[in-house]
Amino acid sequence: MNMRIIRYILGIWCSLSVLCGYGQTGLYPNAFPLTDVKLLDGPFKHAQDLNVSTLLQYDVDRLLAPYRKEAGLTPKAESYKNWDGLDGHVGGHYLSALAIHYAATGNVTLKERMDYMLSELQECQEANGKLHPDWAVDYVGGVPNGNDLWPKIKKGDISVIWKWWVPWYNVHKMYAGLRDAWLYTGNEKAKNMFLRFCDWAISLTEKLSDEQMENMLGNEHGGINETFADAYQISGDKKYLIAAKRFSHKELLNPLSKQIDNLDNKHANTQVPKAVGFARIGELDKDATYFTAGKFFWETVTGNRTLAFGGNSRREFFPSVQACYDFITDVEGPESCNTHNMLKLTETLFRVHPQANYMDYYERALYNHILSTQHPQHGGYVYFTPVRPRSYRVYSAPNAAMWCCVGTGMENHGKYAQFIYAHHGDSLYVNLFTSSTLSWKQKGVVLQQTTKFPYEERSILTVMKGDATFPLLIRYPSWIKKGGFKIKVNGKSISHTLLPSSYAMINRKWKKGDVIEISLPMQTRVEYLPNVKQYVALMHGPIVLAAKTGTEDLAGLIADDSRWGHIAHGKKLPIDEAPILIAESESELIRALKPVKDKPLHFTLNGIKIINAASLELQPFFEVHDARYIMYWMTLSEKAYRGYLDSLAAAEKAMLELEKRTVDFVIPGEQQPEADHFMQSERSRRGHNQDKSFREAAEGGYFSYLLRTNKNTSLSLQVRYWGAEWGTKKFDIYIDDEKLISENNTGRWNQSSFFDIEYKIPERILQGKEQIRVKFQATQGGAVSPVYYIRLLKNQ
């Protein structure tokens, strides 16, 4: 048989594998390929179709530019500017998004773009091996100046990784992109490139000790352990499973496997992908240590650290119990990437144990967070979802903002059909109530689900084609009261004694024309903000209700290329002036919610006192855009309200006055603020105390940040210290290499309290400067006090 015929047969086979969703069924045997589940009209289909239009606005050559540059090839367009230190990361997300949306919609233009990217990336992979044969064979990454980084890693210099911005996290996005191009479309070129890329990492790190690996993994590295686990399942070669375990961070794995929650003050989306990998390794290797770690992570995050809309973290970090009030004061609320990855973790756990509680969380997060993070007209993506009353969200613009949440946002809106249905053995699971059609090829059955949920309280399943015997399991959601879940088959009621958060099983021979009617009565309930009991969210069924509160000062609503453009920087409106609900009990609050005629899922509050508002209309949070809003409501009894307001007003006034004076600030010890301010350091470490992060330096070490002055020449530097430190705390503070002051905090306060110290900066140092570098340098025999907060303030 000649090669032309062989290629022709392989081409037919590859085409059939795409149509059959080969990759998905091969990697996740109990999941339905996206090609077999189609969304019908509804909010999810609108989001999916809009996202296709949004994806097609991006310039592929600009996304590929970092890869060509690192491979020694001439870029065909200028690289995107935002988040320069992470050049390449969005390219990997974009490749995933093209594959996902092609599988979901069949849009040929998406496939053409994907094929073009793979061709270009393959050229880069080959060029890298020729350019740097000592370390870059099979490498296909866009990490800036990787030719300086990776050879040093290979030689065992792990410390160098801290001079780059999360390089393993960066390459992980392309690992996932190549995997997804095979997973969702069956592209064999992508699979081969993916496995070769995995071989590169194994070769690069094979001589590193376990201790060196652990130290290296202290730097954010995405879900790279998950992708190696996938490589193991794809190839059957155990070297990839070994790599997956070597790339699993034991600092997190070990306590989680013992069901110990050590997440306080940890960067949230650094940890979630690790847990996805733990669960995936446990799924494939039947290793209880890994699976328990992934499962416990899910349980503690969803049970103790998740807000009503399904998101978690503030300022990207998991707060402790004592620090949860930050959700109310901060504008950097839960990050979209976290929920994207929590859904991946949920899918893995469900594949092993198909339990309703996983889908209860999945539904909550899908409607209230993921769907809400896409602008319904222009398709922009959201990074932070503030919980602070009367704040607002910022949206990206195509070709302008290259945040991490733009990358996951590109993927999110093509995956809505991914877990509506699942099968486990012979059983079919109906997990979500979404208008869609399922083609279950194994059974020769086509099932259609028709519903306007959540705008109506029912869903209808109809067998459109085929006859087959199988158990049908329909989720009894946790938000329906006991005894409220009703099912009819061909008009006949199905009796059951199930409790909420379970599955109702109907085992029979199904035939064309069978109709299953599902009643979904939605109840209103109250959910408290974790560890802050005076703030509550109102939910109707799985839907978080919120109220628009105005459109004043929505500065940066559509973000530009500025480094901090993803953060809402309009005026912070005083918390004590936000609407406050006065109610003596939960039941009184729930009874006050009255439906608005002809506006499904819209409610007014009647019969209770509302402070600071004449009237309010609540609606699904996913409908709220281009406005300030409230989703968590201060709710107090009459007596509690009077005492609380006096103390809050005084503290809020002082904070707002400080905000007005602030020109720039950085929170030492927190990853993103330090990266945003171009931190430099030697012999420095970060830590936590009193639920706050800090950075310190010793043994002649230092740390420094670049702060904006906005051309102000009358400024002071405010530094926050803890007043009960041990040891010799002697250090110098420099502004652009000119000493500002020599400090000695040794035994200075001896009080367990924070102290904010202001240092006036001479005007001559600031003349003509738009930014300055502030440096904290340990003196001989001394150390820099832990620094908790740095502000550049306009002088009063």
Automatic annotation (TrEMBL):
Residues 428-522 form the Non-reducing end beta-L-arabinofuranosidase-like GH127 middle domain. Pfam families: Beta-AFase-like_GH127_cat (PF07944), DUF4986 (PF16375), DUF6805 (PF20620), Glyco_hydro127M (PF20736). Signal peptide: none annotated. Residues 36-417 form the Non-reducing end beta-L-arabinofuranosidase-like GH127 catalytic domain. Residues 657-793 form the Glycoside hydrolase GH146 substrate-binding domain. Residues 550-633 form the DUF4986 domain. InterPro entries: 6-hairpin_glycosidase_sf, Beta-AFase-like_GH127_cat, Beta-AFase-like_GH127_middle, DUF4986, GH146_SB_dom. Coiled coil: none annotated. This is Glycosyl hydrolase. The lineage of its organism: Bacteria, Pseudomonadati, Bacteroidota, Chitinophagia, Chitinophagales.
